[in-house]
């Protein structure tokens, strides 16, 4: 009976449990990723609503200003709130910029002129001499005369009555008597107007839930306005993604969303809004804890399942081993019972021959009768020996040895037996060592039985060969071939049965003993035969592994 592969079965049970656990973990991870993506999309949608509100506020202020600007009202009417707010805010910011430029170097003038989209910026001393400037100045004397007697002067700021070519100017006189001029053309005025409208419109964003910070840049990546807590490190405008998570200085994760904006005049901008992801993190963490708990329960159940399977498998295998031993014992007893009858029958024939021969010796004292008695006694001894060998369960004494040595030693001893049968015995061994773990005494018994069968099956002048070789699959094959009469095809499956024999004098124990010995060595035995052309017995032994 084939022994169950207990280790492989336990291993497969562990693999199945581990696969289920890994599948649960992967499913939980995918679920978390999907939840995270859905929550992020929800926050992005919220920011899109913020950007729509901001765009609507910009359109409202822009439309209000256009209605007033083209209505023909005076340029500075305190009763017209939209224009007044814009004009006052722009003038205040330009005055602050002019104050900032006092006593600054040429590089600062150039930088401010570019970043603030000025037509030019200039500084005159108290005598009207140009100290420094950035940009082209058309009439410096006229400018100085205009500001000589006033502390602060501004003209043409959002004045709808001014000619298109007239610039808008703001000038201040600083403490040392120098005069700072800032001049804007229509493009510059539109930029400052847009920036003020953006600043007013950003107030609508502040009241949004979870809002932290917002800023907007024009197509030239110039800041138009910002609001909120700006203590957050953002990447450059050109490198910003639709949405990205950013760490604050307090190590808090926030979500920055950058969306395109198009104004009424066709100019484009980018609005970056930062909102807190606390709500998202709270929901995510709750789901994470739920999934983690489920995974832990799954892993725990998996571990207990593996332990349960392992314990039950061991118990089951113990029962199987016990049943195997019982079945083997029953089979052996059954075989022994059958053989006992056969042995009794076989022993009776030699005993009758010996009895008859002994009586004839008394009467005639014939020498041939003594030889018959010896042969019959020898046959009796062989029958008993075979019977004992089959019933024996002695331990196999394995040793690591080059099996070629045992084959050669047995070949030397068997040559005399081959000569008695008038058969030629041949041996073919490879040059390389064939290291096998085997019991030499039991192996000799195998060789004895197989060669005896081969000698008996061969005709006088026949050839019996022993061949050994190493296979690529780490096995040693030993072939014993004869040139005898062969075995009928229908008899091949019966050869290893203890009660089957094709000899006139025999009980069929030889090949049964060979089979048991080869199986105890972890090997295989195969017999191939063509009737009338001889038989080949193939023994397969595993190579010794260090």
Could you explain how this protein is built, in words?
The protein is of the alpha+beta class and 546 residues long. Among the domains are: 81-193, Beta-Lactamase; 396-542, Histidine kinase-like ATPase, C-terminal domain (Heat Shock Protein 90). The protein is built from 11 helices and 17 strands. Strands 2-1-5-4-3 form a 5-stranded antiparallel β-sheet, with helices on both faces. α1 (6-69) crosses α5 (186-201) and α10 runs antiparallel to α11. The radius of gyration is 54 Å and the shape is rod-shaped.
Tags for this model:
11 helices; 17 strands; five-stranded antiparallel sheet; 546 residues
The CATH architecture of the domain at 396-542 can be named as: 2-Layer Sandwich
How far from one another are the termini? 29 Å
Helix count equals 11
Multimerization state: single chain
Spatial strand order of the main sheet? 2-1-5-4-3
| Radius of gyration from CA coordinates | 54 Å
CATH superfamily of the domain at 396-542: Histidine kinase-like ATPase, C-terminal domain
